[in-house]
Amino acid sequence: MSGSTDLPDEFLQKFANLSLSSRRRVERPYPKPIFAELPTELLQQIAGYCQASDILALSQTCRRLNKACDMTLIFEMSFKNHLPALNTTAFQNKTALVKFVNNYVKSPNKFDHGLKDRRMMWTCMALAASRIPHAWSEIKEIAKALTCKGWVLNKDTIMSLQGPLGFLATLPIWGYTKQLNRVIDLDHVFASLENQVGEHFHETLLQLAFLSAIRTLEMHTTLHRHTMLLDCATSYREALFSRETTDKMWTIRSKWALLIAERMARLIRHESVHDGTFYSDPATGECVRVKVPHYLPNPRKIEFLDFSQFEEGKKAEHTQNKRHMPSQPTFPLLTPKLVAQKGGVGRYFDVFCGGEWSSWHSTRVQELLTNIDKGEWCCTYIKITSDGCLAEATLTGIHFRKIPDGGKFIKYMIRLPDGKFPREASRLRGLARVTPEIYKITIVNRAWDGVTHSMNGSFTPLGISGIDVRRHGSSIVTGGLFWLWKRDWVDAVAC
After folding, report:
1. What are the phi and psi torsion angles at 194 (to 5°)?
2. Which of 112, 243, 351, 422 has the most CB within a 10 Å radius?
3. How far apart, in Å, are the Cα atoms of 231 and each of 162, 221, 263?
4. Burial class of residue 25 (count of CB atoms within 10 Å of its CB; 0-12, 13-18, 19+)
5. CA terminus-to-terminus distance, the chain
């Protein structure tokens, strides 16, 4: 017996052994739960937060996970969860975007996009959304390679570049412009593509021009070299007066018109910050420089879709331009049949380079042309002198009034108040002829200086931009560049 207890040692030992065995039984680990045995609804919720590539990999592990992941809703969730927050007025939120896409695809009256397999479409959309952070990196790597002297683009590199460019050019239409705010030399990318593959990739160059314009307006970049704007004007003039009437030539005109707007915006920002604005003094007629407020479109206020055209039961309207216009309004999505093409690191981006984006572009331009007489317009004019390019003040209060019986043209009378710059306003005030087949507008007027101005422009998703040509005998001289856009797009604060 121990001196500290009344129990025998033998009993204490048996009790100790019994307690030890009990603890062992209690502490024996239970079988760990298996992930695949979780409830199906929970598995699908978890998968919806994964990237599309991870969902596809997860579906290949066992039959139960394959069945759980084989749902369109999971890829919808992945697409929505990996998209950044919307920053434009296109859609209220990401949920509204997903709902619109589903209604659009299921619409019986929609333009045939080959989107019969909704699961395949959302798989591609989710794959593309997960690659948004890497899209600019891929373009930047290719742009770096383009700076190497003697480096030639091959087919694989072009395909790798086409995909990200097409995808990034689609984002503003969905309601994303902030994602284009990246520092990269797109001017060099455009020049290299124009020189090496311009004859075969006009639609890619059109997408790049649109992407550059939206990015410039978003980043507030400036232009230091006037020659870049003058080169655009020269190229646009050559395309404008070309007798070729093919779809390719229309695409080329649109491309240069977008670049004119983009480089005008950069020059305006540069002069507003550094040199002031150039204009003619109404009293003396002399050209002076003053600080005058300039306005430019805010890309976050531009609605690239006319949602009324997508209303259920609404039939397509027949237009005069049957060569470029689709039979129904379009929304740029992925075309699953193009995803099956082999090879290329830009595989899941390449689908944005199909007819979807081009169809949207034609629809958007036709919408602006049809509604030119609705609402107020603004105009910026850049005068070309022997000293370079000089930006004049922004003109506001511009309205188009349709004239009946215009013949083969659609004619409008342009009205705008004199305001503080009557001489500049007199250049724009006059008769406008619209040629709907090629989305062209011509404004002819004899201004205060006695010179007949023929302002020729093209409709683009960002308004109307072009050149002011003057004829001296048999020669044609480019006297300036202009850009018209909707007043609703303009910021309240001057740039």
Report:
1. -60, -40
2. 351
3. 24, 19, 11
4. exposed
5. 98
Q: How many other CB atoms are there within 10 angstroms of residue 254's CB atom?
A: 29
Number of neighbouring beta carbons within 10 Å of residue 163: 26
Ordered DSSP codes for 150-176 = T----HHHHHHHHHHHHHHHHHHHHT-
Residue 194 is which amino acid? E
Nearest-CA neighbor of 206 among 169, 159, 156, 241? Answer: 169
Looking up tokens 């209690």 gives 26
Residue 3: DSSP 8-state? T
Element (H, E) at 458: strand 452-460
3-state secondary structure of 477: strand
DSSP-assigned letters across all residues of 382-412: EEEETTEEEEPPPEEEEEEEEES--TTSEEE
Tell me the C-alpha distance between 83 and 96, whole Å.
13
The answer to whether the CB of 356 falls within 8 A of the CB of 455 is no
CB-CB contact of 292 with 391 (8 Å): no
3-state secondary structure of 444: strand
**Cα–Cα distance between 400 and 302 in angstroms, integer?**
20
- Give 69's DSSP letter: H
What is the SS3 assignment for 303-358?
A: CCCCHHHHCCCCCCCCCCCCCCCCCCCCCCCCCHHHHCCCCCCCHHHHHHHCHHHH
Q: Give the Cα separation of 30 and 26 in Å (integer).
A: 10
In order along its 495 residues, the chain shows pLDDT tens digits of 444 445 566 655 655 555 544 544 444 555 555 788 888 999 999 999 999 889 988 988 888 899 999 888 999 999 999 888 888 878 888 888 888 888 877 765 444 444 456 787 788 888 888 877 777 877 777 777 776 766 666 766 777 777 778 888 888 888 888 877 776 777 777 777 777 665 567 888 898 899 989 988 888 777 666 788 888 888 899 888 887 777 788 889 999 999 999 999 988 887 766 555 555 555 665 666 666 778 899 998 998 887 766 665 454 443 444 444 444 557 777 554 444 444 444 455 555 656 778 888 888 999 999 999 999 999 999 888 877 788 888 899 999 999 987 677 899 999 988 777 777 788 888 889 998 888 999 988 766 566 677 899 999 999 999 999 886 666 778 889 999 999 999 876 556
How big is the chain, counted in residues?
Answer: 495
Listed residue (74, 293, 55, 87) closest to 171, CA to CA: 87
Q: In Å, how far are 129, 240, 306, 356 from 458, measured between CA atoms?
A: 33, 9, 20, 21
Q: What is the pTM of this model?
A: 0.82
CB atoms within 10 A of CB 332: 25
Distance CA 392, CA 424 (A): 8
